[in-house]
């Protein structure tokens, strides 16, 4: 197949593009390579992907509708996986417009490209942040998510709603994936594991929010990729049992699906840090801080639908996952 992966220079996009190439697919990796974090890391990821003759980098801003129209018309993709987004809950408090441009306008251009060029299946990244104020654990895609805690979360929820409208109007199969705290080699420098590792190695204190009482469903990158690949090849279909009198948010009478991809295990942040200290052989100096605006205290994924529909359940332990990250970090940064 020819697959468009947006955000291909990003953490998840890089790993997914690499996996698709290994499977024998042709990949066009769209990425504008913005400066939200270290551009050198992004270019290094792209350089690795470019070693394959089946990979092409499209240096395009998703919010540029004319460039997006041309890309879709020229390439005629079979499937599209949209991972490009302005990321970060906390940054959305400081720079809200970047989130509308990338996550809403950019996503509209993806939908339009899919609609006009007969794309067989659009898979797109949503986020566990859409659960917002929901506290009924594990968090289920079959429950309404109407109380986002940040603009980032609101844009991800809007993506799900926009996708449903295109599935309804144009019979476009769409699947949204709510990722739960992804970590691993080649990870994002603005994420906790990266920041903690860097500071502990350099002998600097780490900032730990909610006084270390954060509880997260940490999901290893390889598990995320396995889930995305399986879902991409499993085209969304209508749910014939859907009932408008008791509407299920995760399915629809049109070809639309929502899945969680998480480890289905909750780990307290303090334990996460303990494992990191063990892997590094060094104790952290900790700055305990209050909750940040837009953050939620706990996440835990209900992955029953993912297991049922594509036969996969993430299960990488934090001991294995953090160990792999530390090994990569020390190698990449010669630390």
Write up what this structure looks like.
The chain is of the alpha/beta class. It has helices at residues 11-22, 39-49, 65-75, 91-94, 96-116, 151-170, 192-201, 221-232, 269-280, 304-310, 318-332, and strands at residues 2-6, 26-30, 55-58, 79-82, 121-127, 174-179, 182-183, 206-208, 215-216, 219-220, 256-261, 267-268, 286-288. The strands form four sheets. It has a seven-stranded parallel beta sheet, sandwiched between helices. It is globular. The chain starts with a strand and ends with a helix.
Fill in the keyword field for this structure:
single chain; 335 residues; alpha/beta; 7-stranded parallel beta sheet; two-stranded parallel sheet
Summed up, what is this model?
40% of the residues lie in helices and 15% in strands.
List the helices and strands and how they pair.
Elements: E1 2-6, H1 11-22, E2 26-30, H2 39-49, E3 55-58, H3 65-75, E4 79-82, H4 91-94, H5 96-116, E5 121-127, H6 151-170, E6 174-179, E7 182-183, H7 192-201, E8 206-208, E9 215-216, E10 219-220, H8 221-232, E11 256-261, E12 267-268, H9 269-280, E13 286-288, H10 304-310, H11 318-332
Parallel strand pairs: 1-2, 1-4, 2-3, 4-5, 5-6, 6-11, 7-10, 8-13
Antiparallel strand pairs: 9-12
Helix pairs in contact: 1-2, 1-8, 3-5, 5-6, 7-9, 9-11
């Amino acid at each position: 197949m020819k697959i468009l992966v947006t955000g291909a220079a990003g953490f998840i996009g890089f790993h997914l593009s690499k996996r698709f190439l290994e499977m024998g697919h042709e990949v066009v990796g769209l990425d504008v390579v913005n400066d939200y974090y270290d551009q050198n890391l992004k270019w290094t990821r792209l350089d690795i992907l470019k070693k394959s003759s089946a990979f092409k980098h499209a240096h395009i801003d998703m919010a540029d509708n004319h460039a997006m129209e041309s890309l879709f018309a020229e390439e005629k993709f079979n499937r599209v996986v949209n991972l490009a987004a302005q990321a970060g809950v906390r940054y959305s408090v400081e720079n809200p417009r970047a989130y509308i441009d990338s996550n809403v306008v950019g996503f509209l251009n993806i939908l339009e490209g899919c609609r006009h060029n007969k794309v067989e299946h659009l898979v797109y990244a949503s986020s566990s942040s859409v659960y917002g104020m929901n506290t009924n654990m594990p968090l289920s895609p079959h429950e309404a998510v109407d109380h986002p805690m940040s603009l980032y979360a609101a844009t991800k929820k809007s993506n799900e709603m926009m996708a449903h409208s295109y599935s309804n109007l144009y019979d476009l199969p769409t699947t949204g994936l709510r990722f739960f705290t992804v970590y691993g080699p080649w990870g994002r420098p603005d994420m906790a594991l990266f920041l903690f590792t860097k500071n502990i190695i350099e002998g600097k204190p780490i900032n730990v929010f909610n006084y270390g009482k954060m509880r997260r469903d940490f999901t290893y990158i390889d598990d995320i990729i396995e889930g995305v690949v399986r879902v991409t090849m499993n085209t969304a279909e209508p749910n014939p049992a859907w009932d408008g009198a008791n509407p299920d948010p995760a399915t629809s009478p049109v070809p639309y699906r929502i899945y969680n991809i998480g480890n289905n295990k909750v780990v307290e942040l303090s334990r996460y840090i303990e494992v990191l200290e063990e892997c590094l052989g060094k104790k952290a100096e900790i700055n305990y801080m209050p909750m940040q605006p837009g953050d939620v205290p706990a996440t835990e994924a209900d992955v029953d639908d993912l297991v049922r529909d594509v036969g996969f359940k993430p299960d990488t332990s934090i001991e294995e996952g953090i160990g792999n990250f530390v090994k990569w970090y020390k190698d990449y940064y010669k630390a």
